[in-house]
Each structure stands twice: as structure tokens, then as C-alpha cells.
Design a protein that fits this description.
globular, 16 helices
Length: 463
């Protein structure tokens, strides 16, 4: 007599445990990476509101470029996960190797482009002093791109092999390094030159190079990753996988670009209002970005879990993985929303001296923006995880249309109308972003339900 099959509830609880086990190291890694950016902002904030406004412009331009490239290489996660689920280890290696190819080929020219960001910022009518300082920041930060992108490819590799903690330890090691370098290079401590905002860019560059170098060593020396020999015949082209990464990844890049362009558009519109609203926006955005990293980690776990199930051709497993990830993410973001609603002043005080009268207007506006962020937390989390779930099925083209409608058609348009026509200023711009995020979250949930209902599973790449 065979063993009794697990009942329906046990399967869902098992999926919840598996998703959580995979997600929490990813969440912690994303939060830790945000910690590097937060440390930059905390130290730069001590230079004054003008430098904080410059950091808002510089980080927005940098992360916009990063996301364009990252979207393409994120295709390595579902493709490698599907190959892993189908028990094709050679194909896993091919995907990761070509992912490194793509990351290098895209990030190097992007770094050169960031060296000329100041004229673009001025063309967009941003404050001249803030644009100049932002360029000083980017002159070093720009060269973080190759290391940052290739680190993500290698972290995807360890995650697909169910070793997400490896990437976490690397990021955790980089945080104190970045903090010491920030303090030394921004303020001239430890015998280092006083570089002010440029020092923050150099500190982040060194931290990202460190993370990539250590993660590469782990991939080559630590089992089970080392068994895949990802650099074996590295220079040999694999055009089938190379093309498939772009096929799946370009729509992901477009989705991330549209989402980020909504946030970048908000930076530009708020920059029209002035430097103080821009500084308030940066503070509120750092707080919202921090909570966002939790569903972002869950989304990556969902991509892998759905991809594994799709590789096994397990449609019921695909459904459980997707809906479980969404439920976990929505529960967390509901808690985050309550915290932001009750203690906005305490959160702002992390980044600025709230007792300084010179900061009073920035602090007050930042508090108002955080209250708006509290409203859209659930929508932001749900749309991010929904995107990750659909990526696990290599379903990226139609979600690109959803992003265009939600982020541009509704988010930016509503932000402009509420901010400038309804005279709500920066608060109105943020309300528009809320509309876009919540709309896309609904689209993603409907799309996943439709795919599961019709029994859709992606085709696997040929050997």
C-alpha cells in the first residue's frame, strides 16, 4: 500500500514554507542593498538639503539606467529555474554564462552614458546646483553598473540552486565597508580626502566591485555552485540562450523602465517645484523603497518557485506558488502601511534633523508624502509580486502593456493633473503614482488567474 497523498491544505502550507525559506534571504539581501543607498543618503543629508536634492537626482538617474539593464538579465532567473525544474543542469550553466555576457555588454556603454547626465538634467529644467553636484556623484557611481548587474546574475544562479543565503552574506559584508568608506570619503576622515558627495559615489563603487568579486569566487569555489563551472568556455557564444534572454528580458526591462520612469517623472515634476520638495521626495522615497524590498524579494522567490514548477510541468504547483507568494507579500505590506501611517515623523527623523528649524518645511512635506505612500503599499507590493509570478512563466509581453497603461497612462498623467492642475503639489504627484501602482496590481492578478485557468505552461529552451 502506498503512502497517503498530502491533503489540499498541507500542500498549500508546504508551499508557504518553501516560498518563505527562499524569500527571506532574498528580502534581507535587497534590504541590505538598500542599506547601502540609505547610508549614502544619511551621510549626504548631513551636508545639507542641497546635497540631498542632488543625491535624489543622481540616484534616480543611476537606478533608472540600472533597471533598464537589470530587466534584461532578470530573465536568467526564470530560464535557469525552468531548466532546473526540468533537470537540465547543463542548460542552467548556459543561461548564467550568457547572462554575464549580456550584463557586461549592456552595462559598459551605460556607464559611459551616465558620465554625461548633467546636460540632460539641465535640459529637464532641474536646479543647476543640484544637477552639478549630481554629476559629481555619478562620475564614480556610474562605474558600479557592471559589478552590480553581474552580481545580480550570480545571485540568481545561487537562488535557482536554492542557496539564496550566499548572496545575503555577501551584501551584509559590503554594508560596513560602504559605511566606513562613506564616512571617510565624504568628510575626509581616516586620512582620506574630503570628497563630499563624490565620495559617496566612490564608496558605493568600491562596495559593488567587492560584492561582485566575492560572489564570483563563491560561484567558482563553493558547492554545489562550483559543479556547474559557469566560466568553462566562457568566450564561446551560445546564441540560442543569448537570444532567449533578450526575448524574455527585454519586456521585463520595458516594464521596469515604465515603472521607474513614473518615479523619475515624479522627481522631474517635483524638481520643477523646488529643491526643498525634491529633498522631501528623496526622504519619503527612501522609506517607501525600503518596504518595497520585501515584496521584491518575495517576487524573485516567486519567479524561481513558479519556474521550478513550470519546468516539472506541474500546473497545480504553478498556481500554489503564485497565489502563496501574493498572499505573503500583501500581508507584509498591510503591516508596513499601518506603521507608515502611525509613525511618519519618526521615519523622517532617521534621515534628517527634525529639530532643526531650517529643515521644518522639508520634514513637514516628507511626512505628507509618507502618508500617501502608506495608502499605496498593498498595491505596490501586489504588482511587484504579480510581475515576478508572471516572469516565472516567461510571460512578459502582455504585462509590458499593463505597465504602459498603468504607469504612464494613469500614474504620470494623474500625478501631473493632481500636482499642477489641482494645485496639490508634490502630494498630488505621489497620489498619481498610487493610482498607477494599484491599477497594475489588478492587471497582474487577472492575468495570472487567466493563465492558470487555461493550463498555460512555457516552452522549455532546446538543449
Amino acid at each position: 500500500m502506498g503512502l497517503p497523498s498530502p491533503n489540499h491544505a498541507e500542500l498549500w502550507w508546504a508551499e508557504g514554507r518553501a516560498t518563505s525559506a527562499l524569500a527571506w534571504p532574498l528580502v534581507m539581501a535587497f534590504l541590505s542593498e538598500t542599506g547601502i543607498a540609505i547610508i549614502d543618503v544619511i551621510f549626504i543629508g548631513r551636508l545639507g538639503a542641497g546635497s540631498l536634492a542632488a543625491a535624489a537626482l543622481g540616484t534616480s538617474v543611476f537606478f533608472g539606467m540600472l533597471l533598464l539593464i537589470l530587466g534584461v538579465v532578470l530573465a536568467t532567473a526564470p530560464l535557469a529555474a525552468q531548466a532546473m525544474g526540468a533537470r537540465k543542469p547543463r542548460q542552467v550553466r548556459r543561461v548564467i554564462r550568457q547572462g554575464l555576457w549580456v550584463g557586461i555588454l549592456l552595462s559598459l556603454p551605460a556607464s559611459f552614458a551616465l558620465m554625461s547626465a548633467e546636460p540632460v538634467l539641465l535640459l529637464l529644467d532641474q536646479p543647476a546646483q543640484a544637477s552639478s553636484e549630481a554629476q559629481r556623484y555619478l562620475n564614480y557611481l556610474a562605474w558600479s553598473l557592471p559589478g552590480a548587474v553581474c552580481f545580480i546574475v550570480l545571485r540568481n544562479f545561487s537562488t535557482v540552486l536554492n542557496r539564496p543565503k550566499l548572496g545575503l552574506w555577501v551584501v551584509l559584508a559590503a554594508i560596513p565597508l560602504n559605511a566606513l568608506l562613506d564616512y571617510g570619503l565624504i568628510f575626509g576622515a581616516f586620512g582620506l580626502p574630503r570628497m563630499e558627495i563624490a565620495g559617496a559615489g566612490l564608496a558605493s563603487l568600491i562596495a559593488h566591485v567587492f560584492m561582485f568579486g566575492v560572489m564570483l569566487w563563491i560561484s567558482l569555489a563553493v558547492r554545489p555552485l562550483s559543479r556547474y563551472q559557469i566560466l568553462a568556455r566562457f568566450w564561446r557564444p551560445d546564441w540560442i540562450i543569448f537570444g532567449q534572454i533578450f526575448k524574455v528580458g527585454l519586456p521585463i526591462s520595458g516594464i521596469l523602465a515604465l515603472e521607474f520612469s513614473m518615479f523619475l517623472g515624479s522627481v522631474i515634476m517635483i524638481g520643477w517645484i523646488g529643491a526643498n520638495p525634491l529633498a522631501a521626495h528623496q526622504v519619503a522615497l527612501m522609506i517607501a523603497t525600503t518596504t518595497f524590498k520585501v515584496p521584491l524579494g518575495i517576487a524573485q522567490a516567486a519567479t524561481v518557485r513558479v519556474g521550478h514548477a513550470a519546468g516539472r510541468r506541474d500546473l497545480a504547483g504553478v498556481a500554489r506558488a503564485g497565489w502563496t507568494a501574493m498572499a505573503i507579500g500583501i500581508a507584509f505590506m498591510a503591516v508596513a502601511s499601518v506603521v507608515m501611517w502611525i509613525w511618519p515623523e519618526m521615519l523622517v527623523a532617521i534621515f534628517m534633523d527634525a529639530g532643526d528649524p531650517a529643515n521644518a518645511s522639508v520634514v513637514a512635506l516628507a511626512v505628507s508624502l509618507i502618508l500617501v505612500a502608506a495608502i499605496f503599499q498593498i498595491g505596490d507590493g501586489a504588482q511587484t509580486i504579480g510581475s515576478g509570478v508572471l516572469r516565472g512563466l516567461s510571460d512578459t509581453r502582455l504585462p509590458l502593456t499593463y505597465a504602459a497603461v498603468g504607469f504612464w497612462g494613469l500614474g504620470l498623467s494623474a500625478g501631473y493633473l493632481l500636482g499642477f492642475k489641482a494645485d496639490l503639489g508634490a502630494v498630488g504627484v505621489w497620489m498619481g503614482m498610487a493610482v498607477g501602482l494599484m491599477t497594475v496590481s489588478v492587471f497582474h492578478a487577472i492575468r495570472f488567474r487567466h493563465l492558470v485557468a487555461k493550463g498555460y505552461l512555457p516552452e522549455l529552451a532546446p538543449e
